[in-house]
Amino acid sequence: MTSYAQAFALVSTRQANPHLQDLTDEELVARIRQNDEQAFACLLVRHLNSIHHYLLRLTGSRSDSDDLAQETFLRVWQKAHTFTPGKVRFSTWLHRIAHNLTVDQFRQRGRNPVSAIDANDKHFGPDFDRAAGELHERLSQVLTTLPENQRHAILLCHQQGFSNKEAAVILGVGVRALESLLARARRTLKAELTEVLT
Amino acid sequence: MTADELREHLDRLGGRLDTWPSAVAAEARTLIERSDAARSVYREARALDELLQHTLASDHQATPGLERRILNNLTERDPWQAVIDWFATSFWRPMATAALPLALGFALGWVFPESEQDEFYEDLATLTFYDAYETYPEFDDE
After folding, report:
1. Chain B: closest CA distance from residue A78 (Å)
2. Complex ipTM, two decimals?
3. What pLDDT score was predicted for residue A51?
4. Which residues of B62-92 are buried (b: 16+ CB within 10 A; e: fewer)?
5. For A104-151, what is each residue's pLDDT tens digit?
6. Is B24 part of a structural domain of the chain?
7. Domains of chain A (ranges plus CATH)?
8. In sequence order, which residues have a C-beta less than 8 Å from that of residue A101 and are 6 or more positions away?
9. Residue B65 falls inside a structural domain
10. Which domain range does residue B47 map to?
11. Mutate to test the interface with A, among B16, B71, B92 (most CBs of A within 10 A)
């Protein structure tokens, strides 16, 4: 991963402003509105891994998630003036952009079955437990069989750490509808993994 | 609350009771303390939560070089796009903009009411551009 200093060097020959790293996401977006490329680089370094992980889980393809992540951040650059601080968190807005772009891509290309993320994409350490790995792989596999909107809901709440209310904003549905999606997904997962969970 | 109702709540809200509405969470805690069936349902939900947590959490790294690719693709913003977005991001903005000329017209009419001079110019315009003279009896030779 590129460091803040490296990212700053990529966008500007001006000396990097060390205080940028201390700013909140919302303050950085305010600077991006003034065409501050270093503020954009700062946000990119802060959020790229997370959004790429989310997109990789949604699409199952590293090249698709690269393209979608790029398009997501370019939209942030282009549309920074449409972000309203205080209405939603920046990360919620960012995920909403990524989600909408992914749905658009699914519509254009048709819904391909999503493959589980390759074990190479999970960075297991030296103390990697084979049984745990198999269990994780099994759950990853079951996740790919969930209907698209249920998978999105589970990923947003369990992987990306959003509350039900935030996940509902990202998916563009009401909180009750989001909870229904989560309930159906959890029932399916429990049914598929019953021998592990009991 | 019954064990089945607790299961329904767990499916909808997840296994972390501290994120639930406080009244429902209190009821759920009481039931879990008293009922073996409720405890079993709760344990199953927590196990699923933890499995999801461990499976989905990772120190995932984006593809090397992706930041450079994104930063190299930053382009100048189109100023017109900013104007279009300003209109498109809310319902009231285009409405207010459309209503503005109407309001301006009313305001001007209020400030500058019709005068005798306006009537003079109105008559002058009518006479200048009027060309259907045959409809006037005084121009009829017959």
Report:
1. 6
2. 0.78
3. 95
4. beeebbeebbeebeeeeeeeeeeeeeeeeee
5. 998 887 765 555 554 445 444 444 466 667 778 888 888 888 998 999
6. yes
7. 1-112 (1.10.1740.10), 128-198 (1.10.10.10)
8. A68, A71, A72, A75
9. no
10. 3-56
11. B71
